Amino acid sequence: MSHNNSRVKVEINNLKKYFPVKKGFLRKAVGHLKAVNDVSLRIKERETLGLVGESGCGKSTLGRTIIKLYAPTDGEVIFNNNGDSISVYDLGKKEMKKVRQNMQMIFQDPFSSLNERMTVMDNIIEPLVCNNIGNKKVRGDRAASLLKQVGLREGYLKRYPHSLSGGQRQRVGIARALSIKPKFVVADEPVSGLDVSVQAQILNLLKELQSEYKLTILFISHDLGVIRYIANRIAVMYTGKIVEIAKREKLLNSTKHPYTEALLSSVPKLGAKKDRIILEGTPPDPVELPEGCIFSSRCLYSQDICYNESPELTKQKGDHFVACHFSDSLDLRGIN
Amino acid sequence: MSKNSDVVLEVNNLKIHFFTDEGTVKAVNGIDFYLEKGKTLGIIGESGCGKSVSAHSILRLIPSPPGKIVNGEIIYHDSSLNKDNGVVHIEQLNKKGKEIRNIRTNKIGIVFQEPMSSFCPHYTIGHQVAEAILIHNDELNKEQAHEKTVELLKQVGIPKAADRINDYPHQFSGGMRQRAMIAMALSCDPEILIADEPTTSLDVTVEAQILELLEDIQAERGMAIMLISHNLAVVSEVADWVAVMYLGKVMEKAPVGKIINNPLHPYTKGLISSIPKLEGELEELQPIKGIVPNPIDMPLGCPFAPRCERKVSDLCDKEVPAEIEIKPQHYARCFIYSEEVE
Ligand SMILES: Nc1ncnc2c1ncn2[C@@H]1O[C@H](COP(=O)(O)OP(=O)(O)OP(=O)(O)O)[C@@H](O)[C@H]1O
Ligand SMILES: Nc1ncnc2c1ncn2[C@@H]1O[C@H](COP(=O)(O)OP(=O)(O)OP(=O)(O)O)[C@@H](O)[C@H]1O
Ligand SMILES: [Mg+2]
Ligand SMILES: [Mg+2]
User: Fold this and answer.
1) Widest CA span in chain B
2) Which terminus in chain B has less CB density within 10 A, N or C?
3) Cβ(B44) to ligand 1 under 6 A?
4) Residues in contact with ligand 2 (CB, 6 Å cut-off)
């Protein structure tokens, strides 16, 4: 276990998560769906790392595997738990339960993540109850104040999830994940169902918590405006791999990967039809990946080498990492 | 809004209340809008303001008890009916009857806000979409339904659709489930599509593909779309008209360009200024101050008054402003403009 650089909160090394692909009557495994395919990342304490990428590219799976909601296929995650570097996958059940207090997830699908049979109050305080934190009053107070912080009045505590609107449920999910004051949160599309005003309120709340108790966030979202507002750095994922990662403005303005360029060009703009780079076709099959670069089949700039050799994620000027054979020579459009 | 023969659905002074132990939740409290053939109505508004409840009521999917349509009309103009000029009063239909079931399977498709809850976890995605196709087309056999399923899933951009139809819902990513839901809603070639936040889990490239697909189908078949979305940029790209809701009421409605470029209602203005920008200086986001009033204990006057920074008089706290046409084709409920109009 490494004790270097105490400012790194989560260190992810060569993480892989494969799902077996079963076929036929006997459901025999005939291959693997490589949802997360060799990802290495460092997330610093108090940092928000934004994660963007095409639908189905593996963002949720990556988030879930990092906090061990899925068992990894390979790789390691080192978590800095109150100063101790802990290898998450080496922990037994009991130890993991303790560490889990500091790692929470805001789930993408609020409906299935809340317990239908419990009131909003009981849903929010469940992590506290599970870990024996506080008494009834402390828990109740925390639930009420959190609910208010996410823009819902106290009256909702007694309601059941099915009687809430989509965005109200999503906010209960956020309150629940934060109730235990975790140090690291994987927030999977946490504001996707919220109108922009409530969204602004939640984003500001997360920022406050970051300075209040050094919260570290992996923030998955498809809304690049939101990502720009909340994230310090942005990672772009494509078919199980990180293809570009850099500081926020760098990634948006000196874009270096052709997929990022296409993604940025598709951002819908208020009141204007955009000049989009429409990606033809679909991403490669994560069961049978191509030999060369995973983006080659849809890339506007691909050349022979791209179909034969897979580019590594390599460091460029100013902590800008890119996985593209031609990142030096291409002159790509950024957000402007 | 001037009505014409292209109107396929009309909602007039609709009120839907939930009768709960704590009191009556006035989720939808007197709304009017209509949908036109080949046109898209965008609906935006505060979380919890009644968008989904309005949408569900069109297909009579409000759970009752506790919910009830307490007032108003939902009129569907069915061109295939000769009786009553094709006018169907949806609000009067038997919730479990043949007529509403026929409308649900053949006329009006819906994409629910939460795709996970609309798929059954125990059946494969392919099975569920094929089932929907078979209910609609009794002349198809199983094999043909299977083919159409693959075709539809391809259309919504599911890679290797022929293999992936054997997946169970939990094996799909959030955005893939959302797209499967869209495929299912489109499987009955609906005249009207109600899409409740259909692209919330989609990255922008796939979102663009889906929006384009919807526009193509709309152009081809004249489908009317009701698009509920909190993403104003998406709405601005695809909607013709926009209605802005707050606490169970439509506060402003107009053709999309007017809402985006020249919003009149203080609530709409607040919304537009809370959008995080992708260009220029990064400024702190300013959410609208305060919290939505309790829908059980509604303010007497304008529902937005307790949070409004532009209140003009005591009137705002005492009376609900009427909907007035402030500029041609631009309607709002706000006392700021009442003098200008008089
Ligand atoms: N079964 C129910 N019992 C009581 N109240 C309900 C019930 N269903 C919905 N409501 C309330 O009705 C109001 C409107 O809900 P609706 O789902 O239409 O909101 P929405 O505009 O779609 O919001 P969102 O953008 O968050 O999805 C909310 O305040 C909600 O809490
Ligand atoms: N439990 C599972 N079993 C089998 N395959 C799975 C499972 N969970 C995810 N997958 C597959 O792994 C891939 C990545 O899925 P994931 O949910 O991580 O995508 P995502 O990037 O979060 O997409 P979205 O933006 O649509 O939510 C997809 O092809 C998905 O179908
Ligand atoms: Mg996901
Ligand atoms: Mg809703």
Assistant:
1) 67
2) C
3) no
4) A 19, 33, 35, 53, 55-61, 108, 286; B 170-176, 201
Q: What share of chain B is helix, strand, coil (3-state, %, to 5)?
A: 35, 25, 40
On the question of a cis peptide bond just before residue B306, with omega within 30 degrees of 0, the verdict is no
Asked whether residue A172 is assigned to any structural domain, the reply reads no
Which of A205, A198, A120, A204 has the alpha carbon at shortest distance from A157? Answer: A120
Give yes or no for B28 touching A (CB within 8 A): no
| Parent domain of A34 | 4-102+182-254
DSSP designation for B103: I
Q: Which two tokens stand for residue B2?
A: 């001037």
CATH class of B7-107+190-341: alpha beta
Smallest Cβ–Cβ distance between B197 and the set A111, A188, A193 belongs to A193
pTM score > 0.90 for this model?
yes
> Considering only CA atoms, which of A90, A66, A67, A64 is closest in space to residue A13?
A66
Residue A3 has pLDDT above 60, yes or no: no
Instruction: Give the closest residue to A192 by CA, choosing from A172, A220, A232.
Output: A220
Nearest CA to ligand 1 atom 5: A163
Locate the chain B residue with the closest alpha carbon to A261.
B205
Does A141 fall in a domain?
no
pLDDT tens readout for residues A73-125: 999 999 999 889 999 999 999 999 999 999 999 999 887 789 999 999 999 99
How many A-B residue pairs are in contact by the CB < 8 A criterion?
Answer: 194
Could you state, in order of their start, the residue ranges of all structural domains in chain B? Answer: 7-107+190-341
A26 C-alpha vs ligand 4 centroid, how far in Å?
41
**For each of chain B's 342 residues, which pLDDT tens digit applies?**
445 679 999 999 999 999 998 899 999 999 999 999 999 999 999 999 999 999 999 999 999 899 999 999 999 998 888 777 889 999 999 999 999 999 998 999 999 998 777 889 999 999 999 998 898 888 889 999 999 999 999 999 998 999 999 999 999 999 999 999 999 999 989 999 999 999 998 999 999 889 999 999 999 999 999 999 999 999 999 999 999 999 999 999 999 999 999 999 999 999 999 999 888 888 899 999 998 888 888 889 999 999 999 988 889 999 999 999 999 999 999 999 876 544
Q: Which chain A positions have a beta carbon within 8 Å of B44's beta carbon? A: 195
One DSSP character per residue, A31-78 reads EEEEEEEEEEEEEETT-EEEEEE-TTSSHHHHHHHHTTSS--SEEEEE
Domain membership flag for residue A77: yes
CA of residue A64 to ligand 3 center, whole Å: 10
* Of B113, B166, B172, Cβ closest to residue A193: B113
- Of the candidates B19, B12, B56, the residue with the CA atom closest to the CA atom of residue B34: B12
Any atom of ligand 1 within 6 Å of the Cβ of B256: no
| CATH number of the domain within which A79 lies | 3.40.50.300
Number of structural domains in chain A: 1
Q: Which ligand is nearest to the CA of A64?
A: 2
Ligand at shortest distance from the CA of B207? 2
In angstroms, the CA B149 to CA B143 distance is 10
| A321 assigned to some structural domain | no
- B223-257 pLDDT, tens per residue? 999 999 999 999 999 999 999 999 999 999 999 99
Identify the closest residue of chain B to A198 by CA–CA distance. B287
With a 6 A CB cut-off, is B79 part of the ligand 1 pocket?
A: no
